[in-house]
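HUMAN:
Just now I want nothing more than another pair of eyes on a protein record. I would be glad if you read both lines and explained how they fit together. I have put the entry right below:
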Amino acid sequence: MKKYLGLLAFIASFVSISCEKQIPDGEWDPIEVNKETLNFPKEGGVDSVYSQNYTSWWISSGYQGEPGNHIEPTTIKGEDGKTYQQIDGEWFKVTVLRPHSNTAVVWVKKNDTDSTRQAGFCMTVGDSFKYISIYQE
């Protein structure tokens, strides 16, 4: 009988250690990123931003032009069979691999106008948010 009690105690301690700790609402650490602003030349280009303290995040919202010009994120299946979340604006796109990526990749098309363009998106982990700005000459 002692053998079984010892085995049960071992299993119980293993299960309690291996369960992931749940973070209560309001206690998530702020998201730390490598940059909060992405600046692009007129020619466009590709850049990325990543979370330095979380291993996974998702896009919660985006905008183009004025912050009120809201763009909803969508989920797509890539050619590689993986699931991606993205925001697809008129002149930019933001993509993050779901669910296990801490990097958002941003593509910006060539700016054929004489105006500076702006957009942005919000990344989320738990109840912590980080706004990233995009500017193009």
In short: DSSP finds one helix and ten strands in the chain.
